[in-house]
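debug: dumping io for the single-chain case to check the tokenizer round-trip. Nothing else runs in this session.
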Amino acid sequence: MGKVYLVTGAAKGIGLATVKRLAPTAERVIMNVHHPVDPETWTALSTTYPNVRQLVGDVAEAAQAANLVQTIIEQYGHLDGLVNNAGITRDQLLTRMSTADFNAVLQTNLVGTFNVIKPALKVMQRQRAGAIVNVASVVGLHGNLGQANYAASKAGIIGLTKTVAKEGARRQIRCNAVAPGMINTAMTDQLNERVKAATLATIPFKRFGEADEVAQAIEFLLKQPYLTGQVLTVDGGMTI
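debug: decoded output
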């Protein structure tokens, strides 16, 4: 029986790269998206990877997150791997940050991760098998100017990862996290050149990472059978 994977926040960036990385060896890869993928992009993707399916849902809403997992079980009967990648940013210095923006980021990034893990973990516990990888960030390890909400959400994901690892191990379920550094995605595209140059100066490799390089780490953590509770930084040496 082939593996069935769910990847949240999979419309672009690290999520989409992970879908493409997992698809060649999986039975099914379900990409969760907030809005349907545009027809032209979907046609190209599904032609190259015919075992990929898309499910629309907002993980920030508990009922929708639960429905994602329920739909997968109804259609495929099992769920072998979960990648929690859905996330947003609302950057601002803390003294200028609105409560709404602080809460919105935590609701999607941290609560959304919890919302999907809860039903998925129940399924995996019944199966006595499964792997979860949460996408955190180096910002969750060290903080960052103007990202109090994002840093708090990613630090929370790291704590959640370690707790799920301890609870899941009783039924042979693994839970790990990746902590990407500066990766070429839509998020980093929004940075101005001054900020990009200053950031590059802190990276020993002197370049931003690529989404597929993070996806490779995610695939490793999904498939490595004796790793759990770990946070793997993928940052070109940024946090050395």
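debug: round-trip ok. DSSP finds nine helices and seven strands in the chain.
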